[in-house]
Amino acid sequence: MLSTRSSDWMLRFKKVAYWLWLLPVALVPLSYYLGQNSAHADAWAFLVPTLIFGLMPLLDALLGRDPANPEESLQVPAMENDLYYRVLTLACVPVLLGMLGWAGWVLAHNQTWSWIGQFGWILSIGIVMGVVGITVAHELVHKDPAIEQNAGGLLLAAVCYAGFKVEHVRGHHVHVSTPECASSSRFGQSLYAFLPHAYLHNFLNAWRLEAERLKRKGLPALCRQNELIWWYALSGLFALGFALAFGWLGLVFFVGQSFAALTLLEIVNYIEHYGLHRRKQADGRYERTNPSHSWNSNYLITNLILFHLQRHSDHHAYAKRRYQVLRHHESSPQLPNGYAGMVVLALFPPLWRAVMDPRVKAYYAGEEHQLSAEQLAP
Question: Residues 98-115: pLDDT tens digits?
């Protein structure tokens, strides 16, 4: 639908349309107020996952792809230096933390839900914290300024996944699309085999990487310079605060939304690299990461809400590029829908393999030997 628009028009449109990140956040109070005095209050508590994973894939298919790449010599430097884009992501932090606190209060005081509605509310908050919170945290922890680093860490602490700040940058981006990366899913591996391995190994790998960093400085792993200790301590303070403010239900709320958010993150990790791998060279080292090692999705609506996260091929090839100047690479392997639709598909492994396995094989056509035993799911 927008494929005929000029690149300049699209860039101007997107500069405003990135504020669509507010849409998932706005669905939270909307679902609460629609449930008041309703005979179906429990059902309204599931409005967020219903619209995000039901409506957004349809909108992606209807509105289509985003054709615009910024011009490198003039537009990219100007957009990189435009503070507007940084303010936009930093604005997410107080909004999301405010929503989180309000949502905990609602759960503790709302008498219209059964346990089913309470579960739907916790799931909904976790989805918003995953869709917006972790996505923004991912953007911020890749940047050098301390304010962005700390803002990203704060959002990750709010979902008990501070290890992502260390492991993603120093682990995943080094070993992506190799058997050494717990966040890179293998060809033939189901989501439900991938998730437990990702939870455990990404947590442990974060502590190992931080310990190695401190060792190079002559410091022990358990010292005040270990940033994971501080971030996880902050998660503990969040949990304590919710427990003191709202009782045992507040604690359940905080832990539950955290688990939903981090699980959504790992599902997206599963989608982003499924079946793709970097070739091992004659010297035993893997080839340099390039846009062919991540699945790309250029569907407009989800890309706007996710700050161009779906242009993942360019992100892995050039990790420091800011979201507003990430490019679409037509030569990269392409997903058939946006992340919202692919998350739903991944939940059903037979359907996932029916759709994705032929795409992996087609991508390696003529090089089927690349899908060797080393690359297959164990």
Answer: 999 999 999 999 999 999
